[in-house]
Amino acid sequence: MAALFPHGWIHYLAGGLLIGCGVSLIYLCTGVAAGTSSFFSAQWSWFSRLGFFRQERWREERGWRLIYAAGLVAGALLWRLETGVCLTTSVEPRRLLVGGLLAGFGARLSGGCTAGHGICGLASLKKESFVAVPVFLLTAILVARLLP
Amino acid sequence: MKRAAAALLGGVLFGLGLAVSGMVRPETVLDFLHLRDMGLLLVLGGAAGVSLLAFQLAPRLLGRPAFGGSFEPHPGRLSGRTFAGAAIFGAGWGLCGVCPGPAVAGLGAGLTALLWSVAGLALGAWLHGLYQELAG
């Protein structure tokens, strides 16, 4: 156990269960399988003239997706206020930017990210998610390993 | 209004879970991707496990969502884009250790550097819109 989880495992399981409760709550109340990468596409519908972002779908979703994102920030802020811990990262800005760009494009092309495919898609037993999850896990492990 | 409240509360639980599990921090994700700590699988498994129960049982027990709408699954189809997109997503995720949920939630945990990833994600989503426009 200590070899697999050098920092302990209870907080991982507790966090995962909380995430599952959040996703389930939204599903039980609204029927929406709430991934997170669609947030970015939906927000472009406020500004962009591209026909793709002017679809009815994004106009309908953008409002509640913004509220959902505000909830994500608020939940982490709550944790920060309770624990008094303010996190930092040593990953360089250019890496965060380029990695984000690839992740954003890829998630939208694939139809989901770690939440949309990894949590909601698997829970819905969608076949494309059972393909996407192993593909992105293996690619990510490979890329992380190959890069310095 | 009730649907907005559900989105907010669900988001709060999601963000809290990402912070409690440490997944908002890129280093925690990178530790998993370097196979030094299997925590991420426990987070993903726990979240997917709870959701599996809800997604599979709710349509049978409730019939329809509490605040209206329906449990009809979002139509998706398996195509080359599912593969290519997942591989590109994985490359970006492996490069920086950040995916969409943690990028947004991390801002609440004090990780202001994640604004770089939020900008990247937004740009990537825009490029996808442009790609869809050009490629159809």
Explain what you see.
- The complex is a heterodimer of chains A (about 150) and B (about 140).
- Chain A is mainly alpha-helical and about 150 residues long.
- Chain A has one domain (about 20-145).
- Helix content of chain A is about 70%, strand content about 0%.
- Chain A contains six helices and no strands.
- In chain A, helix 5 packs antiparallel against helix 6.
- The longest helix of chain A is centred in the middle third of the chain and has 28 residues, at about 55-85.
- Chain A is globular and about 50 Å long.
- The two termini of chain A are about 30 Å apart.
- With about 140 residues, chain B is mainly α.
- Chain B is globular and about 45 Å long.
- The N and C termini of chain B lie far apart (about 35 Å).
- The mean pLDDT of chain B is about 95.
- Chain B has one domain (about 1-135).
- Chain B has six helices and no strands.
- Chains A and B meet through helix 1, helix 2, helix 3, helix 4 and helix 5 of A and helix 1, helix 2, helix 3, helix 4 and helix 5 of B.
Got a strand count of chain B? 0
Contiguous runs where pLDDT drops below 50 for at least 5 residues of chain A? none
Give a short account of the largest sheet of chain B.
none
Figure out the total of helices of chain B: 6
How large is the share of residues in beta strands of chain B? under 5%
**Please, what is the average pLDDT of chain A?**
96
Helix content of chain B: over 70%
Q: Note the main sheet of chain A.
A: none
Structural class of the secondary structure composition of chain A?
Answer: mainly alpha
